[in-house]
Specification:
Number of helices: 7
Mean pLDDT: 90
Strand content: 25-35%
Shape: globular
Largest sheet: 6 strands, mixed
Distance between the termini: 80 Å
Radius of gyration: 28 Å
């Protein structure tokens, strides 16, 4: 849809002037641009950055911001279309809109989209994406020439100050550590996103980057302004699509630099902020980078405009734009499908009989939602399925479908082990699967010296077990974790061991990390045995550079990992070989 500016009449000017004496209204003589709605941001001081986590966001330090204006919304396709028509902006359809079972394609991979049509497009009131940092600056310059208002991209200081909006919590709406409230304030990786990606691509965030425990109703780029504004009145300042800024990015954080180094026309990487629909909500200090030259346009990045100083300028095109936007928002909310609530309170009780009886009664809390027509029952194809990350249908198969008035049935575990999950259905939709209910594998007691495989785990915390897709893999199970820039969570895996003799043992492990650094700690009955490092050039996939003293007898052995900043690490096994005295 092409938005046209309203031609102002004398009577409309008089009416608006009567409504507000502080607003100055200008006219648009031609239907050639849209003056964006802007928000006056007060001058102020704040603490920028973070105390831990991503080194690029450190150190935390004081900053002062002068009064300025920030775009109420990200620039939309409707606004950008005027620029594209007048300037002949007509890039090839190579924008990165790739998505599949392994996630997004990344900025180095060519896609099939462009600014006005790509995989996530459905409305002119979505943020314009598939544009570069240079395109964003070109638009700001073009609009400045049209309006006489000097538009530009915000600096990183302005963006973080505006996003936090004088709050000190993890998010501007509160700490929300379990992310149950995030979907009221932005479009993040959520239940709808998980559901759509499950069914379209076999893609799951479970055990990978995870998703918010809420539903924002959108899987990908959403129409701007669908969610609640932050305290400064800015919409979608986090989530939806990341935003290009007018600041350089350096991996070693906030350090004093020369004017030449900090020149955005020279630095290798520029900053973008806000995350997007494909990530759960992160603290507002989190930064990300984009190569100023050489990377492809992508469908997950947009921009919003800024203006130095305050003014109360308004324009007929702004009023028309917000009226049309409101209609688009109402229509979208009215027509998008609602995801059924996931079934809860599953129970699995063995039926009376002898010990070899493999029959169980599976029951669950029935849904009270209107429109529920029944439930689908899924059974695991592996005794470890309840520990797995990834798409649930890779590890579960449907065994039954029942009507809405049924909330228990008899199931069979012929091997004596396994798990079940339940999916709620309506005439048009399916819910996400319930949490699994399992008859768990009795964890092995591993004799040492020997090798501990990750499927020998007695307990996992903040991590999932994965199974290799290679049929010839002699080590099919491994722990895998994507540690986001904002993550600082302790991962643990506990094993039951029986040590033959108190002695020093050579520790060999098979694992991998993005970083050469301290990797993991081992604890025996809550006593620290040591901290062990990973060196990429030495260890590659296996390491035998370490030793540890183990006490004879039956013990609990705990592997713990605590990473700061982005990492993708894995662990397949630990091996202990007794050293000679």
């Amino acid at each position: 849809m092409f938005i046209q500016s309203l031609k102002s009449s004398t009577s409309s000017h008089v009416l608006i002037a009567m409504l507000s004496s502080v607003i100055i209204v200008s006219t648009v003589s031609a239907q050639e641009y849209i003056v964006p709605p802007m928000v006056n941001i007060p001058a102020g001081n704040f603490m920028m950055g973070a105390e831990g986590g991503d080194t690029a966001a450190q150190p935390i330090h004081p900053e002062s911001v002068a009064a300025f204006q920030m775009g109420k919304y990200a620039v939309t396709v409707a606004e950008f279309r005027n620029f594209a028509i007048e300037t002949g902006f007509n890039p090839e359809s190579t924008c990165g809109d790739n998505i599949g079972s392994q996630g997004l394609g990344g900025p180095k991979k060519l896609g099939t989209g462009r600014w006005d049509k790509h995989r996530y497009s459905y409305s002119d009131y979505q943020p314009v994406t598939c544009v570069s940092w240079q395109d964003a600056n070109a638009y700001a310059k073009w609009l400045s020439n049209k309006t006489g208002i000097q538009y530009r991209l915000p600096t990183e200081q302005e963006w973080e100050y505006s996003a936090k909006a004088n709050t000190s919590s993890r998010h501007f709406w509160g700490d929300d550590l379990d992310l149950t409230q995030a979907c009221l304030y932005g479009n993040f990786a959520d239940k709808t996103g998980e559901h759509v990606n499950n069914n379209k691509y076999g893609l799951s965030n479970v055990g990978w980057i995870e998703h918010a425990d809420c539903d924002d109703g959108e899987a990908y780029n959403a129409i701007v302004g669908l969610y609640r504004a932050n305290p400064f009145g800015l919409y979608d300042i986090v989530g939806n699509a990341g935003e290009f800024l007018n600041s350089c990015y350096f991996e070693d954080g906030y350090k004093a630099r020369s004017k030449e180094e900090d020149d955005v026309n020279n630095c290798e990487f520029i900053t973008h902020r806000g995350g997007g629909w494909h990530y759960p909500a992160q603290p507002h200090s989190i930064r990300d980078r984009y190569k100023r030259e050489g990377w492809n346009r992508v469908a997950s990045l947009t921009f919003r405009l800024a203006v130095t100083g305050h003014n109360n300028h308004s324009d007929a095109s702004t009023i028309d734009f917000e009226q049309s936007l409101k209609k688009a928002q109402v229509q979208r909310i009215a027509t998008r499908a609602k995801l059924p609530t996931t079934t809860t309170n599953l129970q699995l009780v063995k039926k009376a009989g002898n010990n070899e009886n493999s029959s169980y009664n599976l029951s669950w809390q029935p849904s009270t939602e209107h429109g529920v027509t029944g439930y689908e029952i899924y059974q695991s194809n592996s005794p470890y399925a309840h520990l797995y990350g990834g798409y649930y249908k890779n590890h579960y198969k449907k065994i039954n479908s029942v009507n809405a008035d049924v909330h228990s049935l008899e199931v069979n575990l012929s091997t004596g082990m396994g798990s079940f999950r339940i999916v709620t259905k309506t005439n048009t939709q399916f819910s996400l699967p319930s949490k699994p209910v399992a008859v768990a594998v009795e964890p092995d007691v591993v004799a040492l010296p020997g090798r501990i495989y990750m499927n020998n785990t007695a307990a996992l915390k903040n991590i999932s077990l994965y199974k290799s897709t290679r049929k010839d893999n002699p080590e099919p199970y491994y722990l895998f974790k994507t540690n986001k820039n904002s993550d600082h969570s302790l991962v643990t895996s506990t094993f039951n061991i029986d040590v033959k003799k108190s002695a020093w043992y050579r520790l060999n492990y098979r694992g991998k990390s993005f970083h050469s650094a301290p990797f993991f700690k081992l604890w025996q009955n809550n006593t620290l045995l040591g901290e062990f490092s990973y060196e990429a050039e030495i260890d590659d996939k296996t390491s035998s550079r370490h030793k540890v003293y183990l006490q004879q007898g039956s013990h609990s052995l705990q592997l713990s990992v605590l990473r700061e900043g982005f990492d993708m690490w894995s662990m397949s096994w630990l091996e202990f070989t007794q050293l000679e005295n």
